[in-house]
Q: What sequence folds into this?
């Protein structure tokens, strides 16, 4: 896959990041290498191998529908980058 | 030239499980902000989700009730997006292998029966609540991780009426299944409308998605508004932009929110923290067997077994609380027809009068069945019946005590009735003469006079019978 400026700009946008020119050049090289390595998998014969979404064969790891105590609010909020009263706080997301 | 409207719905229903989908925090509505939050639903690094068994069963129940195929194997995917309503920066949902696919729901709208296709039902987690003010955006994560099912229909709707009829039927089913309380005002049932217009025979037009539909009526109004807006736009040479719009029911119009992201922008990928879910035939058979009788099945049974009219059966099954009440009163009194009359008549009238929603109905079935027994045995008349029903409904009185204290028992003492009739005729010789001269109206007047003398508690049939006898024996006939 060709990594061009447009794709880098798209990825910047998707990941909410702003990259310097130097970072963009480095990322272009890195991504080409990563995708090049991944492309080696295309050479494998997967004709009779069922698609799977998880490395383990286990299924149905359930918990029963029981309420357990939540964490203390002060503790939960302690780790937040921002809080206001009982709420988590973030920069304003709407105008 | 005419336009055709094409509508599809996405309905989000919060499941009424006790705990959240991936952790043990309470899933109940409300609570102090951030009081139902733990490392899993707050997205702490390293905290691992574990799937609530009841969520899978509830989703499968809905699928079976809507005639879907329940997938023998399904799995979860991550939907990535940056918005602080989910602290993980992704929502765990199901894109590639949803739990249910391909169902149908029969509706009746504008006098026509129609079948609406269900594309799929998937399980996912709800997001938190955001509050915006001048200082910033504030988050309450209590709702994060509350289990949701999203029911996606095929674009089979052509009018707001069809949308409303579908939503009514769906709500009925969800309530009967006991999987969702369907309180739109609390957000436990949310509807998004996808709508486009096109010329008949031409390809589909550009669609918009409308959110914030807080009632079924609002959904109907929003559909009509959006249909008109798109047609006017196209007819004036403009183009519809694919976007999400917010419906403002008070203003009666919608506003553009954001242009719709492409599906791939969410960078879906399989959720590595959760194992796939498998439902074998035995398990599914168990769930199928546990399905309760649904509203349309009840309607058929009421008509067949109790000989109720279609209208009565429809009112009684309109909400599970109403049908539960009816069945209790019918069983306790052994008088299903009279129980149906009481609930579709007086109780519905009193509910309207007091603006009582079915889910808040708390009238006692035992007391209503006692009232039914009084009326069906002819011990009280219509007026006393209405008065007692009102006292039971509003104040929870015991009908037997109330009827005794108020002296509402019908006088069935033949002597007293004969006395009252005789007095009424003697006091009103003109009316008696008029009747004998062929004026039928005078008969009703005399019944009224006799009833008055009996304090309103005479049996009307008995009074009429005595009056007829008395007048026949009057000499100048």
A:
């Amino acid at each position: 896959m060709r990594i061009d400026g447009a794709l880098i700009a798209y990825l910047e946008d998707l990941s909410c990041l702003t990259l310097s020119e130097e970072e963009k050049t480095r990322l272009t090289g890195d991504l080409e290498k990563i995708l090049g390595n991944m492309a080696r998998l295309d050479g494998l014969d997967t004709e009779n191998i069922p698609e799977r979404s998880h490395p383990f064969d286990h299924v149905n790891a359930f918990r029963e529908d029981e309420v357990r105590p939540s964490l203390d609010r002060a503790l939960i909020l302690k780790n937040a980058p921002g809080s206001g009263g009982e709420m988590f706080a973030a920069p304003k997301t709407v105008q | 030239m005419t336009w055709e409207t094409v509508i599809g719905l996405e309905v989000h229903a919060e499941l009424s499980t006790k705990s959240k989908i991936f952790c043990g925090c309470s899933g109940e509505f409300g609570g102090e902000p951030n009081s139902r939050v733990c490392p899993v639903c707050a997205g702490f690094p390293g905290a691992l989700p574990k799937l609530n068994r009841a969520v899978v069963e509830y989703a499968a129940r809905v699928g079976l009730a809507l005639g879907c195929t329940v997938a023998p194997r399904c799995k979860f995917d991550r939907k990535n997006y940056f918005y602080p309503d989910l602290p993980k920066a992704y929502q765990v949902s199901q894109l590639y292998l949803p739990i249910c696919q391909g169902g149908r729901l029969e509706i009746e709208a504008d006098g026509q029966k129609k079948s609406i296709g269900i594309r799929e039902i998937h399980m996912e987690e709800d997001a938190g609540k955001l509050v915006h003010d001048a200082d910033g955006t504030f988050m309450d994560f209590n709702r994060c991780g509350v289990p949701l099912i999203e029911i996606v229909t095929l674009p089979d709707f052509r009018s707001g009426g069809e949308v409303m009829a579908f939503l009514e039927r769906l709500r009925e089913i969800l309530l009967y299944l006991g999987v969702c309380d369907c309180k739109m005002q609390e957000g436990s049932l949310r509807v998004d409308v996808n709508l486009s217009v096109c010329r008949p025979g031409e390809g589909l037009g550009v669609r918009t998605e409308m959110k914030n539909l807080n009632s079924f009526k609002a959904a109907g109004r929003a559909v009509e508004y959006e249909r008109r807006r798109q047609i006017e736009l196209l007819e004036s040479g403009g183009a519809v932009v694919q976007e999400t719009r917010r419906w403002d029911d008070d203003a009666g119009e919608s506003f553009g929110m954001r242009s719709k992201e492409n599906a791939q922008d969410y960078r879906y990928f399989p959720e590595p923290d959760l194992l796939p879910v498998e439902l074998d035939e035995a398990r599914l058979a168990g769930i199928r067997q546990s399905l309760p009788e649904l509203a349309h099945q009840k309607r058929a049974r009421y008509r067949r077994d109790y000989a109720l009219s279609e209208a009565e059966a429809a009112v009684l099954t309109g909400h599970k609380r109403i049908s539960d009440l009816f069945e209790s009163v019918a069983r306790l009194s052994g008088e299903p027809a009279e129980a149906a009359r009481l609930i579709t008549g007086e109780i519905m009238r009193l509910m309207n009068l007091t603006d009582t929603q079915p889910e808040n109905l708390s009238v006692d079935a035992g007391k209503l069945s006692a009232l039914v027994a009084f009326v069906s045995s002819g011990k009280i008349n219509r007026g006393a019946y209405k008065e007692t029903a009102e006292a039971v409904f509003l104040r929870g009185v015991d009908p037997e005590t109330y009827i005794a204290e108020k002296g509402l028992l019908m006088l069935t003492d033949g002597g007293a009735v004969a006395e009252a009739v005789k007095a009424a005729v003697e006091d009103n010789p003109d009316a008696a003469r008029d009747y004998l001269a062929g004026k039928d109206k005078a008969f009703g007047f005399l019944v009224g006079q006799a009833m008055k003398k009996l304090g309103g508690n005479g049996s009307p049939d008995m009074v009429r019978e005595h009056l007829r006898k008395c007048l026949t024996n009057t000499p100048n006939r």
